[in-house]
Specification:
Elements: E1 6-11, H1 22-30, E2 33-37, H2 38-43, E3 52-56, H3 61-73, E4 77-82, H4 92-102, E5 107-111, H5 116-124, E6 125-126, E7 132-136, H6 144-156, E8 160-164, H7 173-183, E9 191-196, E10 204-209, E11 222-226, E12 232-234, E13 237-239
Parallel strand pairs: 1-4, 1-5, 2-3, 2-4, 6-13, 7-8
Antiparallel strand pairs: 8-11, 9-10, 9-11, 12-13
Helix pairs in contact: 3-4, 6-7
Bound molecules: S-adenosyl-L-homocysteine.
């Protein structure tokens, strides 16, 4: 084939088509092939009728990127999809790395999406109105001691902390340890928002505090947002003031 292939790395947003942007929709529409983990493919089922779809298992990221590259080198337009923003614990880093590793010339366009922290924050009210840190508790690819150090530094700096990958069936102690570390520098009364399935079917919201947060359901479909010392709850909303005089 002489046609020049292209790779889109598309962030699908939180999981409802209404929250995908025009560029992401167009990229999917223009693609010959869609590649991604099957849960994400399912989210866009209606958009991809008649296209070649390659779904792959959860832990096969490198394989998925190699496949994507193979397809693009054949001259096809390929979208590799991630939830949220593809550049935040998503596929865009590894996609570029695989391309560099194979030393081939293919255009990669990253299409940003609404990341879980933004989606959850919108549901909670306005918890991210001041400086915040995003920390993943997944220690599959990152040393747990480094994650702990970052949690502690963020807590010490009174950052609002958005926690991704907080807990899975096999990883339960991390969120407990993270809470202990935050309690070294943050008050037990610090407001905490827990949002499961933000901006998609099955959304659940809890506003609690650092002292009680572990009494609520937290899993891999959940983002936990821990406020700063000024964050408060009012009328079921979690607000971090920017500092305006009213
Ligand atoms: N690229 C994604 C993050 C992938 S890491 C993004 O930008 O959002 C996977 C973690 O993201 C999950 O464990 C969970 O903490 C969070 N997550 C993804 N979608 C979510 C949603 N709709 N609601 C709440 N958390 C979500």
């Amino acid at each position: 084939m002489n046609k020049k292939g292209k790779i889109y790395v598309v962030g699908l947003g939180p999981g409802d088509i209404e929250y995908m942007n025009q560029r992401a929709l167009q990229a999917i529409k223009d693609s010959d092939v869609i590649i991604g983990y099957k849960t994400y493919i399912k989210l866009i089922e209606d958009l991809i009728e008649g296209k070649e779809v390659i779904d792959s298992g959860m832990r096969k990221e490198v394989e998925r990127c190699n496949l994507t590259l193979d397809q693009a080198l054949e001259g096809k337009i390929v979208s590799i999809v991630s939830s949220g923003d593809a550049g935040i614990y998503g596929m865009s880093g590894i996609m570029h790395e695989v391309k560099f590793e194979r030393n081939v010339d293919v255009e990669i366009e990253v299409v940003p999406g609404i990341t879980s922290a933004s989606a959850a924050a919108a549901t909670l009210g306005a918890p991210l109105m001041h400086d915040f840190a995003v920390i993943s508790l997944s220690d599959l690819l990152t040393d747990w001691n480094l994650i702990k150090k970052r949690i502690e530094c963020a807590a010490m700096g009174d950052f609002i902390i958005s926690i991704y990958n907080p807990k899975s069936k096999g990883r339960v102690h991390q969120i407990e340890e993270a809470r202990e570390l935050m309690l070294k520098h943050k008050s037990p009364k610090t407001v905490v928002g827990i949002v499961k399935n933000a901006k998609r079917t099955g959304e659940q919201v809890v506003i609690t505090d650092l002292e009680h947060m572990l009494e609520h359901e937290i899993d891999m479909l959940t983002v936990v947002i821990v406020g700063n010392e000024k964050t408060y709850e009012k009328d079921g909303k979690m607000i971090t003031p920017r500092g305006y005089k009213l």
